[in-house]
């Protein structure tokens, strides 16, 4: 019998077809993309210098000025109450608008309160900022059952009756 001279140097399998080599190269590039995404996804991406973009907690925000030691702890300011409804949308008696929250700074970007700036102290507490960047006496807290009276909470909820 006559043997080919290359028979000892290569396997006795049919030549690779196109789809087999394409599948192998696709599998290699897939794992390369997964590895690159894992490296990129490890650190937060800061879109703006102020910090990460976020949204405030939904619900009624009740605003007040400080009281005195002989009276109430805070004097409710119903005209300044607002409600965060979804995403970056707020509602006041005069209408609705949007805001941008970056780090500890919330800026009303459209609507009746366009241009107002708020210093976010915690998830449920913020102070309105003066034009010079310092905090004013006006403070707003997210209205929940244990920190607001029923009258204050109902007034803030009335800003958007479609939502509870």
Tell me, what is the CATH class of the largest domain? Mainly Beta
Radius of gyration: 30 Å
The main sheet comes to:
8 strands, antiparallel, barrel
Tally of contiguous helical segments: 2
Please give the alpha-carbon distance between the first and last residues: 90 Å
* Number of domains as seen in the coordinates: 2
> Could you give the order of strands across the largest sheet?
2-4-5-6-7-8-9-10
Average per-residue pLDDT, rounded, comes to 76
Q: Write down the secondary-structure element order.
A: HEEEEEEEEEEH
Task: Write down the CATH topology of the largest domain.
Answer: Lipocalin
> Which stretches are poorly predicted, pLDDT < 50 over at least 5 residues?
none
The helix content is 10-25%
Class by alpha and beta content: alpha+beta
Number of strands: 10
| Relative strand content | 25-35%
CATH architecture of the largest domain: Beta Barrel
What do these coordinates show?
This protein is of the alpha+beta class. The chain has two domains: 14-43; 53-157, Beta Barrel (Lipocalin), CATH 2.40.128. 19% of the residues lie in helices and 32% in strands. It is built from two helices and ten strands; from the N terminus they run H-E-E-E-E-E-E-E-E-E-E-H. It has helices at residues 18-40, 150-157; strands at 53-54, 59-66, 74-76, 82-86, 89-92, 95-102, 105-108, 117-122, 125-129, 135-142. Strands 2-4-5-6-7-8-9-10 form an eight-stranded antiparallel β-barrel. The model has no long low-confidence stretch (mean pLDDT 76).
